[in-house]
């Protein structure tokens, strides 16, 4: 068993051998049987609950399909989102009210030159948790707008604020998808660069010039 060790544990194989030596007595088998019975019962209950959830979510198959298109949103998170906020977006009045209710809408942190608190409201804890979890998963989806947005914000504002900001982006997308019954529009990881093409080009040129280079730009032929 010691030889099955991986990573840094392989440096301690000589110590693992003696540590794994022992006897499995009848009393140990009795206790292990109890634990296994508990695990099997829990797995059975989870299977029953999952089946019931699937039955309850059948009327919302169209919304589940839409949510599945969003990077970072799997079936479990989609179920939480529908359970907490429903599918009728007219009850919220506007996307801003929905974001505030969900707790992923930080307030304005500066007014008349005075810096104010940017503390995020508590909101609906369950929905907010699901959205932030979706944001963390979306940050790992390569080639997507949400991943690119997350890492840009993370570099300037930190991990937690980036996650909440991307959670807000996901919520805004859900609001419009449910309101108009449209599919998710994946903008791609180059969207922000294309949108801010002039600003990005100017910054890169200035950085090269500060390093002592003379920069000449030429438009690439289509």
Unreliable stretches (pLDDT < 50, length at least 5) are: 108-113
Instruction: Provide the spatial order of strands within the biggest beta sheet.
Output: 1-2
> Largest sheet, if any?
2 strands, antiparallel
Q: Beta fraction of the residues? A: under 5%
Summed over residues and divided by their number, the pLDDT gives a mean of 88
The ordered H/E elements are HHHHHEEHHHHH
Question: What is the helix fraction of residues, given as a range?
Answer: 55-70%
Oligomer: single chain
Number of distinct helices: 10
| Large-scale geometry | flat
**What is the β-strand count?**
2
Query: What Rg, in angstroms, do the CA atoms define?
Result: 25 Å
User: Between the first and last Cα atoms, what is the distance in angstroms?
Assistant: 61 Å
By secondary-structure content and strand pairing, the structural class works out as mainly alpha
Walkthrough of the structure:
The protein has 222 residues and is mainly α. It has helices at 13-19, 26-56, 61-67, 75-85, 95-102, 125-138, 145-157, 159-180, 191-195, 197-210, and strands at 110-111, 114-115. The protein contains 10 helices and 2 strands. Strands 1-2 form a two-stranded antiparallel ribbon. Strand 1 and strand 2 form a beta hairpin. The radius of gyration is 25 Å and the shape is flat.
Descriptive keywords:
222 residues, mainly alpha, 2 strands, flat
Quick structural summary:
With about 220 residues, the chain is an all-alpha fold. It has ten helices and two strands, in the order αααααββααααα.
